[in-house]
Amino acid sequence: MTVTVDPVPPELIAPAPGDRADFLLELRSEEIPARMQDKARDDLARLFAAELDKVGLKPGAIVTFATPRRLALIARDLPAATEPVTEEVKGPKTAAPPQALEGFLRKTGLTRDQLVERDGILFAITRKPGRATAEILADAIPAIIRAFPWPKSMRWGAASASTESLRWIRPLHGIVALLGEGVVPVEIAGIASGVTTFGHRFHHPGPITIGSAADYEEKLRACHVVVDQDQRRVAVRDRAAALAAEAGLELVEDEGLVGENAGLTEGPVPLLGRFDADYLSVPPEVIQLTARVNQKYFVCRDASGALANAFICTANIDAPDGGAKIVEGNRKVLAARLADARFFYDTDLKVPLEEQAAKLDRIVFHEKLGQVADKVARVAKLAEWLATGGIVPGCDPALARRAAELCKADLVTGMVGEFPELQGVMGGYYAAAQGEHPAVAEAIRDHYKPAGQGDEVPTAPVTVAVSLADKLDTLAAFFDAGMPPTGSKDPFALRRAALGVIATVIESGLRLPLAKTITQALLARPGRHSLEGQLALLDFFADRLKVQQREAGVRHDLIDAVFALGGEDDLVRLLARTAALQAFIGTVDGANLLAGYKRAANILKKEGYAPAEQDGSGLSYTPEPAEAALVAALDSAEPRARAAVKAEAFEGAMAALASLRAPIDAFFDSVTVNDADPAKRAARLALLSRVRAAVHAVADFSRIEG
Amino acid sequence: MILALHAYWAERGCVILQPYDMEMGAGTFHPATTLRALGPDPWNAAFVQPCRRPTDGRYGENPNRLGAYYQYQVILKPSPPDLQDLYLGSLAAIGVDTALHDIRFVEDDWESPTLGAWGLGWEVWCDGMEVTQFTYFQQMGGFDCKPVAGELTYGLERLAMYIQDVDNVYDLAFNDAGVTYGDVFLENERQMSRWNFEVADTDRLFDGFRKAAAECENCLAPTDGSDPLPIPAYEQAIKASHIFNTLQARGVISVAERQAYIGRVRDLAKGACGAWMERNAADWKARHPGWSA
Lengths: 706, 293
Hints:
The structure holds 2 protein chains of 2 kinds.
Chain A: E1 20-29, H1 37-54, E2 62-67, E3 70-79, E4 85-93, H2 98-108, E5 116-118, E6 121-128, H3 133-147, E7 172-179, E8 182-183, E9 187-188, E10 191-194, E11 196-198, E12 207-209, H4 213-222, H5 229-246, E13 250-251, H6 255-263, E14 269-274, H7 284-295, E15 298-301, E16 307-315, H8 324-349, H9 353-358, E17 364-366, E18 370-371, H10 372-388, H11 397-406, H12 414-418, H13 425-433, H14 438-446, H15 461-480, H16 494-508, H17 514-523, H18 531-551, H19 556-563, H20 571-585, H21 588-606, H22 625-646, H23 650-670, H24 678-696
Helix pairs in contact in A: 1-3, 5-6, 7-8, 10-11, 10-15, 11-14, 11-15, 13-14, 14-15, 15-16, 15-17, 15-18, 16-18, 18-19, 19-20, 20-23, 21-23, 21-24, 22-23, 22-24
Chain B: H1 2-11, E1 15-16, H2 31-34, E2 43-52, E3 68-77, H3 83-93, E4 103-107, E5 110-112, E6 117-126, E7 129-140, E8 143-144, E9 150-155, H4 156-164, H5 181-199, H6 202-220, H7 230-249, H8 255-287
Parallel strand pairs in B: 1-2
Antiparallel strand pairs in B: 2-3, 3-9, 4-6, 5-6, 6-7, 7-8, 7-9
Helix pairs in contact in B: 6-7, 6-8, 7-8
């Protein structure tokens, strides 16, 4: 290891590390997209901490701020310098040949008299002085700026004649870097750090001098900038709720909108306006969506819970007219949006869904899987089959078919073209308005559900049939074509589809034979089908089920234990069996039986035992009492367990197994399996094999952990 | 308003141009933007460009959506450091009071798949209405912009609605003698919407698209073996792009085909931009030592 003493000019001798100061960094730019601000704060804190960590500096705390025009960080209690470090390097023995000493002196850059001798060994002792924190920061800031991981970044200005010029989210204009009250000198892409920043773009466009981290927030506040995003969020949330209350309404809360508006303003001023009540003839989902997505407005409910003709926009200025002109302008924009929505709605209403559905042959479902019209035909067939076969009880097959035939028709409507999020919802409205059966309209509206965990799971029979058919068809099609999800890539949301099927089946307790249903879904597709795809899909369901059940507190090894029996594709039965198993394994009998089973299985495995043809003949010797007792217990338990499994009375099956526990324990306690007499040995191995088989009739205990 | 903008930007060194005499979807298609955004020479220009957006037609029934409207386009290369302030100054010049109106820069990354171009910037909101597209071009025709140009695209009708305080675009006063925007354009919107959505003969449109594409290729590789002609080639690309937009409004291009058509137009535009770069490269390098494409 090479250690050299840095020559330290007197003026750069670090201040005493004991002095502590706060550091302020502000990176001022043109407007940063609202959705990127939170991550940018995290990245800034992370990169800053990493830079300090490299030199062993520990700040007291790091806080970060983001507004549309600035990204800032305050690091508390930074020492003024890093601690000096003393390093000792072991050298040669005093008695070593001169060449060794020369080499060591060369390596350390010291002379013989600077070395220290201890116990006949020479040591080089060097003191690394502390480095001034300001100097460290001056290196760190440009490194952080250059390494900043913006999701998208850009070049600008004259420097951009080279693609190597500095990149930032939008043009970067200023850097404030203050350690205590002193400027940390930095220059990057022609921007020199200093003490100057700017206030609110319209309320205080002039420069402001920042004294230190201590007065940063306060000075900006005086210049109409609330630099703390959390304070802006509170201002938006509370004021919007208050405005609604003042108008006798209730705010429809939307934290996403709160954050977005706080990210679009430096001094948020929520304002309430009204739109023409005539527009309330447009479905409320449409009004809320266009207000939120296109305009970032909150909406309100009236006392009856219905959508009110009010909106709340968030301005960035406190206008002298109290915001009257701003509200008026926003009202006009919303009116135009709503006029557009009504245009789509009225135009769509005039076209029967059946006619729209006919256009689905123009829309590609997937380039390898044909058009949406083909998919609809398959879904209709499968939904009808689910109803006819009684798999979805109480479902009228004709209604299931009808709902399925119309379920994708809204994809070609103007409204869904404009707002894809409204797929299903609009179809439901149009179906109801065009006189379809209410169950059909409901199924069209809800067949995409559940759209994720926590989403409502459909239970209305027609909806359930269409929802299952749609998801199973998608899954079957992609797996059949060899396109299952891989790793983190699941572009067609197949995992979500499978979880949706599982949740729907469990919610309604449907007796859905999965393998048979998948076959049915495949048969509706043209061409040859791959067996691999079908098996892979069943495995996929098993995996999804484990994930879903793990979250519900079910042990995945127990699900494995039931799955491993094979042939079980009825999710409801499988889960009932798993639940009974989990309860049983939790009892003393269960735990001991598992131990006994494992002992038996280990012996069989060690002996390489293969069950011979059972000759059914009795034993050629007199069994020991424990041996006879086990045979008797099996004779009684086996048929009981079998019958209980058949009747799906899984607690009963577990009880039958529990009756084996004591005889097995007794058997292991008093009987030697590996008897010298080959006949005894063979018979006892066969008995253990019978124990194993009896247990396997209920679940594959070898999969159970512990 | 147009005169005020002309005066404002002329004072700031822009050449004032006239509209390009072809149908196009946005002022960005004007060769003074597209082609001039390429290369190292400084370029500052301002002009009005009529725009045609067949799918945005609403038969004259929407208060601010139009199938044909006017943009005011400013391009400044390289982008000046005070571009946002210059822009706000131009709003003041046309009478937008930023003490009373809420001006916001809302993320809107611009991308033109048909031009092979993208940039970062914002849509500028005035009281919630998008009045300007503000973009720092990063690529054009698939080429890096070196240096980056700043582009401002004002929606003239929308700004006029603010300044005149009217709710409906057709109520805008066109002069002081009672002529409104509706008097001038309402019938156009009605008839053009009918034509774009319902009447246009799609076979002839498809044919027109093919012919424009073929002619573009002819300009890029003249049959007599002479040098490519990027400007005529680019004009044919503009033409193909507009025909494609009309076909879209007629609803005869499926989702799958759509990508293929966009790709086709992009290839034409890229070809023209590439030929433009090639034709000028030697001059540019001579004037700007160290510059490279």
